[in-house]
Design a protein that fits this description.
This protein has 479 residues and is an alpha+beta fold. It contains 22 helices and eight strands. The longest helix has 21 residues.
Length: 479
């Protein structure tokens, strides 16, 4: 890896310089990066449209106070809202993330790089409406870079191990690319990036028992809005903090990261967008995606064999360490946010019903006593080999194997899924299904003619890239 040192700015932390240089100087060159960025964009917007069906999400949207809309402000897809870019970033980020159905990146840290679209789309749209020449190609470029910053930092640096949430990386990546969209100077960009680390970072407690709750669904929106605010503050010429990471005793490393500097295993490029994971078939925490696929296979097998779930004595999930750490849960589940982070729940529902949708996390479904009865008979066991393959950069598997034992002592052969449908190794199989998912989500909000108008743009790379951002965002507005 090239040196992080920059002799022209020796007072700035080297890591901040590396990020600023990448945002300023790098231009993605691979067809795969650009195409995957488009697929990521349409999938994320579809997720946002589906989230609008849930009042727990929509109650958070709109102006901070009644009437605080903005002429030529940024649009919130699927709504009539036109807002200042800070609140629009929150709304777009929250809707994309709400159902845990957008893309995923798994490494030492876990996260969802498409979360950054909240900040990117809000600022790009707002600037486009106010005279800046910004096209959707610029949005895709920013998305590629945001994916890379968040994802590369996640490969070797575990924020969860120090109790911090991965949305700290959303705030960092979004601040970096929003600085580019705002045309900040290099010094202003460095100042904005330093403010990210001076900020307090979100605790991860809202993702884990006993505090699992709905903040995990709007935390990314919060990070996006804060990123926009910090970049706008830097645009005024407000000073930055060159040693925000490394200052002894008072810097981020010593205060929040147990004194450990960030580790990098590669230069910034387009690796992350090219290898990102899509959630295509199921709105489930990604470490469970392969388990849900396996459970759907088992559901069909049980029907073929004429056997019932009631006959099952136990199910052992052979899995990897990250799954055990994040989503292996026993006992009561208090809300949808709790249920969609419980692998036992996400296996039990498809075994019983042959499906797993966002609605299956709601209380009316969870009240079915058969779900908890089956959950109690499911346990996870880590397989060190699966953990090794999970971290192997050439494999990046997310494997789960389901082993069923019946009360009469008979067993089924293990159903093992190493690479779920959204994995790069299954990209050819997955993209047509991803486009179908997008079509299905468009139909939730728009009539057939409007759907086709969007599809004519969204499914054509050249047409999409050439379109001004505000024109594209207007396609997703409702009255």
């Amino acid at each position: 890896m090239s040196s992080l040192n920059d002799s022209t700015r020796p007072n700035w932390d080297a890591e901040l310089i590396q990020i600023a240089n990448y945002v300023t100087n790098y231009h993605p060159s691979t067809e795969l990066a650009w195409q995957t960025a488009r697929h990521m964009l349409i999938d994320s917007l579809g997720c946002a449209l589906e989230a609008l069906e849930y009042p727990a999400c929509t109650k958070l949207l709109g102006p901070v106070v009644p009437g605080a809309t903005l002429t030529n402000g940024a649009r919130v897809p699927g709504t009539a809202y036109q807002l200042d870019p800070i609140k629009a970033a929150f709304d777009i980020g929250a809707t994309i993330r709400w159902l845990d159905y957008n893309d995923t990146w798994l490494a030492a840290e876990w996260g969802h790089p498409s979360d950054n679209l909240g900040a990117i789309l809000a600022v790009a749209d707002w600037r486009s409406r106010n005279g800046a020449s910004i096209t959707m190609r610029d949005v895709l470029e920013c998305a590629i870079k945001a994916h890379e910053i968040q994802g590369v930092l996640a490969i070797k640096n575990s924020f969860n191990q120090v109790g911090l949430d991965h949305v700290a990386l959303v705030k960092l990546a979004s601040t970096a690319v929003v600085s580019q969209l705002l045309e900040l100077s290099r010094e202003q960009t460095l100042a904005a990036l330093s403010q990210v680390f001076v900020d307090g970072q979100a605790l991860r407690t809202y993702r884990h028992a006993p505090n699992t709750g709905s903040r995990k669904s709007w935390a990314a929106g919060d990070a996006c809005s804060r990123a926009v605010r910090l970049a706008l503050i830097a645009q005024t010429g407000e000073m930055g903090y060159p040693g925000a990471l490394t200052a002894p005793a008072w810097g981020f490393y010593d205060v929040s990261f147990q004194g450990r500097p960030f580790k990098f295993d590669r230069n910034f490029g387009s690796y992350v967008i090219e290898n990102v994971l899509f959630k295509i078939s199921y709105p489930a925490e990604f470490h469970a995606q392969s388990a849900v696929e396996a459970a759907m296979t088992l559901h069909a097998m049980l029907k073929t064999l004429g056997r019932s779930v009631d006959e099952i004595e136990k199910i052992v999930i052979r899995t990897h360490a990250a799954c055990v750490r994040i989503i292996d849960k026993q006992g009561p589940l208090d809300n949808p946010a709790d249920r969609d982070h419980c692998i036992q729940y996400m296996v039990a529902v498809p075994l019983l019903f042959g499906r797993l949708t966002a609605a299956d996390y709601e209380a009316n479904v969870a009240a079915d006593p058969r779900i908890d009865a089956l959950r109690a008979r499911i346990r996870c066991v880590e397989d060190p080999d699966l953990t090794t393959d999970y971290h192997d950069p050439d494999k990046r598997s997310i494997a789960n194997g389901l082993n069923v034992t019946f009360k009469d002592g008979t067993k089924l052969d293990e159903v093992l899924v190493e690479y779920p449908i959204g994995h790069r190794r299954r990209r050819d199989e997955g993209i047509p299904l991803l486009e179908d998912k997008f079509r299905h989500n468009l139909a939730r909000r728009f009539d057939a003619a409007h759907q086709q108008q969007i599809l004519d743009v969204a499914l054509d790379q050249a047409t999409l890239e050439a379109m001004p951002v505000h024109t594209f965002m207007d396609l997703f507005a409702t009255s």
